[in-house]
Design brief:
Distance between the termini: 36 Å
Helix content: 55-70%
Number of helices: 8
Shape: globular
Radius of gyration: 16 Å
Strand content: under 5%
Oligomer: single chain
Amino acid sequence: MSDPEETFYTEERWQNWLDRVDDQDLDPEEEDSARLLLNLQNDTAIAVAKILAAFDDGRLDEDAAVEEIAGVRDVVLAEVEMDDEETTMLIDGVQTSLVPVFYAAEEYVVGGTPEEGTVPEYVDAAADAEAAEDVDAALGYLVQAGTLIVDGAELPMEVVEDLEYGLVSEWVNGLDSLQTALADPEVVEEDDD
């Protein structure tokens, strides 16, 4: 525990992103708007990846890692109200995508990875659970997939492309951000246009 004061994410950082989003005239069909929302999502996933790296390196113990993840989750998943209802809905979509990122990170720290199953198998099981309207089971399967991703397994793009739009596809989008963040945990520049 050489640096107990390491800061992984702050309310100010999240608010800076929200202010930037609020200043934009967002159109999800437009590349710049889509990139801004993806950067917002990826920036959060990078913070989670850095917490996991600190845990794996022994800079954070289990309790501290869970506390840090919960702190980021509480900031990012807090209710957001923007002036524009469509912008609020877009931010809500980013928040939804990040839900399994937080739970997978916590599960990885506390419980590790499942003994059986692969990322594609868990994603398929999540899609089946969503089709059966069992959203909790779907999330649970994706949390297990997420722990495997944290442990180095790949989320194959063909699995992602085969998903029908819904909660599972949004959640898998978040796991894709986590996978990217784990591979290259560099900070997304807030002023990057």
